[in-house]
Amino acid sequence: MTNMIEVFATNIQDHKDARIVQGLFRIVFPKFNINFDLADSDHVLRVESSTQIDQGAIMRYIQKMGFAIRILE
């Protein structure tokens, strides 16, 4: 089975914030594997899963934590 991958630009710049988001994602979205590339100018959030990824749910969750997020084309 092919994994689904979605990539987002965020304003998460701090490694501490990224670790907090990753920890919460493990609880809320346990089937998703996420990682950040904070060195990239878009502060990339990459989400990978063997199941369907709901972009809207991810974006709402990040926004509720007070961060900006958009889909990277």
How would you describe the overall organization of this protein?
There is one protein chain. By secondary structure, the protein is an alpha+beta fold. The protein has one domain: 2-Layer Sandwich (Alpha-Beta Plaits), CATH 3.30.70.100. The chain is built from two helices and four strands; from the N terminus they run E-H-E-E-H-E. Strands 2-3-1-4 form a four-stranded antiparallel sheet, with helices on one face. Strand 2 (33-37) and strand 3 (44-49) form a beta hairpin. The chain is globular, with a radius of gyration of 11 Å.
In short:
The protein is an alpha+beta fold. 33% of the residues lie in helices and 29% in strands.
Q: What descriptors fit this protein?
A:
73 residues, 4 strands, 33% helix, Alpha-Beta Plaits, 2 helices
